[in-house]
Amino acid sequence: MQTITIAVSAILIAAGLVTAPGLINNARDNNATTDLANIAYAEEMFMGTTGQYSSSVTQAQADSSGFWLGKQDGLKYNLSSKVSNQKALVCSDPNWHYLAKATSSSGKTLFRVSGRSVTSTDISKIDVPSCIANLPGYAEFISESSTPVTEPGSNPSTTPIVVAPTTPPVAATPLAFKTAPVLNASSIGVPVNYKLETNFPAADVDYSVADDSVLPQGLVLSDNSIAGRISQAGQYEFTIDATSGTQTVSQDFDITINAIDLSNNAQPIYAAKSSYSTINNVYRSSSTGGITGVVVAPDGSVYHAQRNTVYKFSSPSDTKGSILAGSPGVSGSNDGPGSTATFSSIIDMVMDSAGNIYLTEGSASNGSVRKISPDGYVTTVVSLANVKALSIGPDGKLYVSTNGIGKTFVYQIQADGTPVVFAGTGAVTGDKLGPKLTATFSALAGMSWDSSGNLFIADGNYVKKIDTAGIVTNYSSTTGFDVYVDSKNNVFVMQNSKLVKIAPNLTVSTVVGNGTQGSASGLLDASLWNVRFFAVGSDGSIYIPDSGVYYTKVVK
Q: Over the stretch 114-155, which tens digit does the pLDDT of each residue have?
């Protein structure tokens, strides 16, 4: 007569992974019986369809492969089958790890990990995969009491078995986030691609938005990634839950999305040429219609606005260009990517050092400042009536001129998109000089900063200057619509059909144009049509959007 003790509840095995003969070397007694009512985790397994079974619900057997078989509550279970629930101390990773435990006929507690060919009596000496140690019930599994088992005809009451002490339970590793809750975007329209990560294998963790939380509009949680774009500036708070088994941890996000990224917002000041000799029609899209704003990127790419569409010209040979944003003939105010975005009468444009384009658009009653990212995604910075021109200041903020009844101001657009009056009282018309907040203007239009931080503004019959102390003066009695101050402090002024230069000594000379509309060629004899704004490239070349011939002309 022989008595052995086996914790059948612990024999949780992944199918097909045992290659060595005998799962537990000293516990392979066929036809051993036990009370299987204590088989923990049996309900977590697939119902088996193979193996040797008896009709008794108290039958357990080790087959020739060393796989433990059992039957409980009228259902057959093959403990060598795959386990479908991670609570069963079997990992659902590609290796299907398992941890088995039994008590030998000599009373020793034996442990085995999948793939091992020998057993051990000391759980601390077995390299238990983290995916097993992290499972709920692990500590209880390695410390639970064994159930006595006897062979047929044996008398357990006369042959008691003393179970050896087990190793103290090992605490399960707590689930925790590894990544800091900081999105890679700081301003509207910037692509978000944030990877969530915990200390558990990615396949064992499910992520979700907490029940009492909502993702910012434009973002989507997919698997372990938060992606998308946020189009509205503001403060956003949300919570993401990570769950593995019975463990759930949360990570709170508290982010600020600005309308303007001040760290990337700088506008270079180039030196114009000392003299120019040629003017040529270079850039024209396939569309017709008035060309208004134009900007030149540091790499030489040219962008011009044609009614409700912004075109990109990669080089002088790219004479037809491609659409960056907007759609010809379609007017509106929709934000979004490329041609899905819509505009309403684009007026002026500037570009920051990161390649973002800011533009003004609209009418006296329904104007706005919009932003186009380098890949063509459009967002709205601020809605502002009567907008005209804009410029980027030394502080990285946007400065926008407005011109209308009670709306003649220079606004400073804060990082969050809030417009703050920088200069003007809003008077219908006036030429009052002095402190900028009491000064009045008559017809505000283009603006430009010099290298010392002074702002020059085209205002009707004058070019005005707001110095760093905030005092407004008449710099020159030169009429114009747009101004540009180069690195040598020459002030260029666009006068509809002629471009002039105001030297630092205030002498005025003509750069290009004869002051009339038409199609005449030549530098000083050239005729220009309804030109309002212009741009200067890094090589000093001047870019003039001529609405009359639908070309952006280049003066070299």
A: 644 345 667 776 777 777 777 766 777 676 544 433 333 333
Q: What's the whole-model pTM score?
A: 0.70
Q: Shortest CA distance to 429 belongs to which of 457, 406, 447, 401? A: 406
Q: What is the pLDDT of residues 493-507, one digit of tens each?
A: 999 889 999 999 999
Q: Which of 291, 285, 332, 329 is nearest to 311 (CA)?
A: 285
Tell me if 76 sits within 8 A of 48, measured CB to CB.
yes
DSSP 437: T
For residue 106, CA distances in Å to 121, 148, 160 come to 12, 12, 11
The end-to-end CA distance of the chain, in Å, is 109
Nearest to 394 by CA among 330, 321, 466: 466
59 burial via Cβ count (<10 Å: 0-12, 13-18, 19+): middle
Name beta bridge partners: 68: 62
CB–CB of 9/39 below 8 Å? Answer: yes
Burial bucket for residue 307 (CB in 10 Å: 0-12, 13-18, 19+): buried
- Over the Cα atoms of the chain, what is R_g? 39
Q: What is the 3-state secondary structure (H, E, C) of 337-386?
A: EHHHCCECCEEEEEECCCCCEEEEEECCCCEEEEEECCCCEEEEEEECCC
Which 3 state secondary structure label does DSSP give 500?
Answer: strand
